[in-house]
Amino acid sequence: MTMKVLFLHQNFPGQFLHLAGALAERGAVEAAAIGGPTARARTGVELIKYELGKSEPAVGHPYARRFTFDCTRGDHAAKAMRLSAQRGFVPDLTIGHVGWGDPLFVKDVFPDTRFLAYSEFFYSARGADVGFDPEFADREKDLAPLLRSRNAAIALGLLASDRGLVPTHWQRQTHPPPLAERLSVIHDGIDTAAAHPDPAASIELPNGPTLRAGMEIVTYVARGLEPYRGFHIFMRALPDILAHRPEARILIIGSDPVSYGAPPRTYKSWRQAMLADLGSRIDRTRVHFLGQVAKSVLLRAMQVSSCHVYLTYPFVLSWSMLEAMACGCIVVGSATPPVAEVVRDGENGLLCDFFDPHALAERVVEVLTTPGRFTHLREAARRSIVENYDLKTVCLPRQMALIDELMAGRG
């Protein structure tokens, strides 16, 4: 008997990229997805898109505007679900990301579907991202009520779920205990066959030289170049790194638009703000901003990297850090959760104080100066990802087992 599976994600496939493909290829499975304007098709998965405004409403109480927008998204998704039902597709299993409200009404449209909820983060005014960085404390006044109301769609989505997924243990702990109890910790998975060491790797820079493995190359990757991912701290570490290692090259991958947090007040981007602040202390001929790049270019950058820097507020963990480790990078990461859940200082990487650019520079310079001392970290970094986060041998099997338990009525 064919099992029908529906994915709900405003930016499908998102975190369901590999899971959707695996289910579609499993056999005796019919898969469909509902997503917003930015959703992309996935082989073997029929995609229905809904249209939606691009911003939260400007009316109503400020604390309720995000929830109103989430409800609007959920309503559009529900209409798409009803259209799907009219076409004869009634899912046995629905898998949805609760962060934006898409699955809010799934149990109202399909009361008999088993709902597996994916939740990344539960917002709080204490103990996580908000209140972490004192440099921007003036921007975070009176946020507690707004953050509490921002959790409304997440909480309702999880309360409607039969089981839930979360990528890391720390991200699970951000949820209140009654909701955390529903969540199984299973990472999305890293394709370690694609992300692997390559001593012959090279990367050709636009209008610049070709860099090869073995050269002094420091890499930094973030979707958005912003304080949430420690971009301001990394940039402040560069003068010391460049001064102590005159042959070092810096590769920075990421885009100017802010993904998390607020943009700077007097510049169009944090890149412009930091370059203006540091001025001539940065040798621009050795610092290369690559913007957004294709996945193949990203992996090549990591394969040629001598040292990869990953900094973050206590927030969701980026795939890029795990991919860097899978490529055998020596990762210098911030001693913040959930980084420290993966990187063990001196065992499979190095940790430093998020707020100390001089300590960061010292660790990076140490790696560049005596790379042979840290070869064991490269090997241990890849081993830890292969053993704990590999897509095909660890994460997908665990996700599939969870789905089988859910469909069998266990757990």
- How many helices in DSSP terms? 15
What structural class do you assign from the helix and strand content? alpha/beta
Straight-line distance between termini = 23 Å
**CATH class descriptor name of the largest domain:** Alpha Beta
How many domains make up the coordinates? Answer: 2
Low-confidence stretches: none
Multimeric status of the protein: single chain
> Can you count the beta strands?
15
Sheet with most strands: 7 strands, parallel
> Could you state the CATH homologous superfamily of the largest domain?
Glycogen Phosphorylase B
The CATH topology label of the largest domain is Rossmann fold
- Strand order within the widest beta sheet: 3-2-1-4-5-6-7
Corresponding CATH architecture of the largest domain? 3-Layer(aba) Sandwich
Series of secondary-structure elements, N-terminal to C-terminal: EHEEHEHEHHEHHEEEEHEHEHEHEHEHHH
